[in-house]
Amino acid sequence: MKKTLIIIAAIALLFSSCNADATGGLFKTITEAREALTIKHMQVVGRKGANDTLWFLTREGLFVKKNNATGAESVVKSVEGNRVQSSAYLNDAAKLLYKTDKDDGSLFEYDPATNVTTPKAVPPAPITDFRLMPNGKVVLKGAKDSGEFWVADYNDLNNGKKIDAGAGFDLYGLFTPSDYEKSDTSKEFILSFVKSGSPNEYRNYYHDGTNVKAMNNDLGPIANFAVIGTDLYILTDEGALHHVKTNTLNVAVKLKDNTVGYERNAFFYPVDDGTNVHFITNPSSSDSMSVFSVVKADPNADTTTVGTIKNGYAAVLKDTFIVSSLKLDEETFLVATQKHGMYSVKVDKNNVSKNDDTNVQEISKAEEYTF
Q: Model-level pTM?
């Protein structure tokens, strides 16, 4: 009887833990050994330059951190009815763009040199909503259920490139590679649309920096992707890794299945050692990280591997929920987590797929990152 009660209590605890934070995954909720921090990161927006100025977004609003200072300054505060939802640092213009939920969606430009904020006019009907990309591109949504969308430059919102996804299709996700480094409207991203049904139907498009091109629609729900030269590597929410060439976007080759799932916009960070490209991933329902390793010379050969990582950099990051990242150099990046702060990570590209302490050269404590 006593043993039965213990089992029942354990099951009750399991379900209450799961419901407490479904977005982070069951195991991430149970295995969080360290206390959550007050700061709730949403996005690493960008940096002006090495050891210069870093911009980031939290639930409290936009912040700037200068010259690796210990403290950050508030730039734009999120308040009820005007909360900052996303942002882009425009490296060429040295200005910030940000979207808020004011009036169901408003776009602003902030000039750090003058501390002046200027509203930017969003086109009227048929535009009903928009999304701001990290590189400054804006995705505009047409009338409800029309399936019409436009990709526009932030300074020319009335002349975007139209995507006709089809009646009944709505936006499923916008995917920016995890090794995003700085704003460049020529940088690639993927747009995915979904039409509810049994099963759901997906339509995917690749923005190559200039044009929007239709791509393979049989991938299912996308978690994230990476660009390595003319190769696209696409991770699905079920843990399948696919390879697509930019000149044959309709053809996708499955390279490997992982046994764990991933959230939308999951951390999917590529590290190139010259011979192989390794993808560090942060599964949604696991107490470890996973690394896919692909031979660059022949990605479609049956040589792709996936390994479980619990040591080295994973010892610090495996039980966090990574929400955003920023590339600093070929082996170094920032990761912002939902509850446990931001970290700077310098991996060893030759050992990044190893499950031991040799996979990392340096990793900061929470909120003690450098950039």
A: 0.89
